[in-house]
Write a structure and sequence with these properties.
The protein is α+β, with helices and mostly antiparallel strands. 60% of the residues lie in helices and 12% in strands. It is built from six helices and five strands. Strands 2-1-3 form a three-stranded mixed beta sheet, covered by helices on one side.
């Protein structure tokens, strides 16, 4: 409760003008009445004092009390709002200090190396698919680069998001699916090794009975 009382007092004090208001309401009039008394005596000064007492001091007091009660009623909301705004500002500042992750892309040389890695196995599947996580804003570009390398190797390849697999919590980054198991392990191993050289660390997982191998492309080994 003390913090609300203090907050209401500070708010009222600020509205009335701070220390300047105290000077204008009390100090200057008192000095003026003292000069008036010295120059004209008590009778002349008392008439002016009565006007100031009613229209100046009492009126100001009533307004100040009304403002204080209003600010006291608003204090809980205002303090909660100020705390929330300050916390949001802190969060924004902390976020701005977080290094942005480098967007995953393959340059021309890397695409060429991946084409060579695919061709080195001699495996010619009918088609391959590259699926990217639909919640990633940069996975589509990375998936397109991998799909481009596969097509340059002479293999039909489609690139699309894995929205149908969103129920799988491991479905992040990029999956490469080959629909025939014959020699697929060698092909997947070559693709995996090539991507590791580029700084990406795929986790290979064989789907039993489906004749598929998934390569989950992550940013670093601990992300696998």
């Amino acid at each position: 409760m003390k913090k609300y009382l203090r907050h209401a007092l500070d708010s009222t004090f600020a509205i009335l003008g701070g220390y300047g208001a105290i000077l204008a309401i009390f100090a200057i009039p008192i000095v003026g009445f003292a000069i008036h008394y010295w120059q004209s005596g008590w009778v002349a000064m008392s008439e002016e004092f009565q006007v100031w007492w009613v229209y100046g001091l009492q009126a100001t007091g009533v307004v100040a009390i009304a403002l204080y009660l209003w600010n006291l009623a608003c204090a809980p909301y205002r303090m909660e709002r100020d705390g929330r705004i300050a916390a949001e500002a802190d969060v924004l500042q902390l976020r701005s200090q977080i290094p942005k992750a480098k967007r995953r892309r393959l340059n021309g040389e890397q695409i060429g190396a991946l084409v060579d890695a695919i061709n080195a196995t001699g495996v010619r599947p009918d088609s391959m698919n590259v699926l990217y996580c639909p919640t990633s804003d940069e996975a589509a570009e990375f998936a397109a680069d991998i799909g481009d390398a596969i097509r340059r190797a002479g293999i039909e390849c489609s690139v699309h998001n894995g929205v149908m697999c969103e129920h799988d919590v491991r479905d992040r980054g990029i999956k490469i699916i080959h629909t025939k198991m014959a020699s697929l392990v060698d092909l997947a191993r070559n693709i995996q090794s090539c991507l590791v050289r580029f700084g990406y660390h795929p986790e290979k997982r064989v789907v039993e009975g489906n004749h598929k191998i998934f390569l989950y492309i992550a940013r670093s080994p601990e992300d696998d």
